[in-house]
Amino acid sequence: MNKKKVLIITYYWPPAGGPGVQRWLKFVKYLPEFNIEPIVYCPSNASYPITDASLADQVNPDLTVIKQHIKEPYKIAQLFSKKSKTISKGIIAEKEKQSLMERLMLFVRGNFFIPDARKNWVKPSVKYLSTYIKDFNIDTIITSGPPHSLHLIGLELQQKLDVTWIADFRDPWTTIGYHKQLKLTSASKIKHKNLEKKVLNNANKIIVTSPSTKVEFEQITTQPIQVITNGYDHEKVTTFGLDKKFTLSHIGSLLSKRNPEVLWKVLRDLINEDSDFASNFQLNLVGAVGKEVLQSIEINDLTNSLNNIGYVSHSEAIMFQKKSQLLLLIEIDSEITKAIIPGKLFEYMVANRPIIALGPIGADVASIIKETNTGQFFNYQDYDALKLTIKQHFEAFKKGDLKTNPIGLQKYSRQQLTKNLAQFINP
User: Fold this and answer.
1) Could you check whether the bond before residue 360 is cis, i.e. omega within 30 degrees of 0?
2) pLDDT grade, residue 176 (50/70/90)?
3) Residue 273: which residues within 8 A CB-CB, separation 6 or more?
4) Residue 288 above 80 pLDDT?
């Protein structure tokens, strides 16, 4: 039986690093097992804020990858300010700490590049892919955003060629955390909302990564919506000895808006109250860290316990996850972040180390952690409960008995999730 051809339009592809690339890199890996032949379309010269050359090794050499040139405004912006690179990573300073150049760049990004800085890739992509889709008899396309401008490629191709179009939202659109920081005019806000509505009501099917996003989108569209979360892959089994110190490790970007003041206070107090804790504790931050986060750590006298490692490759990140005594997951304390389920949560779960998670009340993350018995979730007011849990984990660590007993993880494996995707593509 011939495999069904599906064209996947994505901005993030190796050598891109970070969480954005993982989702479709893994789906593409497993789709052929379910009688689907993926074809990937991505930029040839993208300006990725972080790169990881090692991820290219995970791409099947038989996979068809089409690449086309893209104009990247961030490259031009970097000639005027190094801040453009941090903004492209999502690291945006507090309003009162922004320079004039930062404020200007945010205004330009928000109001002149709607829905985002890759909007100028839409027309040339539609022109090129229109011919390609006809030549290779492709009847299904998938667009993955952000950047949400890629959904506009799907919209135009669908209207032009009458293909089946599936829009995959790795994150929400107008309710994503940084959206309010873009200094949008009233007209720009309306334009974003109208584009979002147009995409959601014209896509034949919609995929989201969390139940809360599904609920949000169901207020806008009646099109079929499927929740397919991110997940974990079966990495090569490597045994890492656990850290000798009582390490609490956060892997991934820790942006200033995610600054967990309550956690820093808990750790400060535990260090001041227990000399044994003070001598054994180490905070690992693996990835980009916002300036305000580092300042809070310093204010709480945690600098001597800090190991600020910076960005590492994905394989190194897996190593840190497996070696750490505790894993830290943090989300912004906001109503609109309840829907965010970071991809690293699933890697954390199979690292077999207890998770300490902080986020808003009612977060989707909380239910997954509870369901899988992989850790504890706290809101930003849970000082006493957070302190008690870390203290209990430290006592278990001293006895050599700090462990976790996860249950029901299989449903979050990349292979199972790809099976769910294949059934949604081709019921």
Assistant:
1) no
2) confident
3) none
4) yes
H or E element at residue 30: helix 22-30
pLDDT at 99: 64
Instruction: Please indicate, yes or no, whether the overall pTM of this predicted structure exceeds 0.85.
Output: yes
The 10s digit of each residue's pLDDT in 368-378 is: 999 999 999 99
Cα→Cα distances 235→88, 250, 338, Å? 29, 20, 29
Q: How big is the CA angle at 365 (ends 362 and 368), to the nearest 5 degrees?
A: 110
Cross-strand pairs, 267: none
The pLDDT confidence band at residue 314, using thresholds 50, 70 and 90, is: confident
Cα torsion 130, 136, 140, 144 to 10°: value is -60
DSSP E strands in 26-120: the ranges are 36-43, 64-68
Query: With the C-alpha atoms ordered 324, 235, 18, 411, is the resulting torsion angle positive or negative?
Result: negative
Give CA–CA dist 264/386, Å, rounded.
Answer: 11
Burial category of 5 from C-beta neighbours within 10 Å (exposed 0-12, middle 13-18, buried 19 and up): middle
The per-residue DSSP string of 374-407 comes to -EEEE-TT-HHHHHHHHHHHHHHHHTT-------
Are 302 and 282 in contact by the 8 Å Cβ rule? The answer is no
What domains lie within the chain, and their CATH numbers?
4-72+116-232+414-425 (3.40.50.2000), 246-398 (3.40.50.2000)
pLDDT in tens, 248-267: 999 998 988 889 999 999 99
Instruction: Flag whether pLDDT at 338 surpasses 80.
Output: yes
pLDDT, tens digit, for every residue of 292-308? Answer: 999 999 999 999 999 99
Q: How far is 205 from 417, CA to CA, in rounded Å?
A: 17
CA pseudo-torsion sign 363, 365, 371, 377? negative
Residues 6+ apart with CB under 8 A from 140: 4, 5, 6, 7, 163, 164, 165, 166, 425
In this structure, the dihedral spanned by the alpha carbons of residues 39, 30, 341 and 142, taken in order and rounded to 10 degrees, is 20
Residue 53 tokens read as 């050359």
**Residue type at 177?**
G
Query: How many Å apart are CA 30 and CA 36, to the nearest integer?
Result: 9
Which of 277, 254, 259, 256 is CA-nearest to residue 267? Answer: 277
State mean pLDDT over 283-289.
95
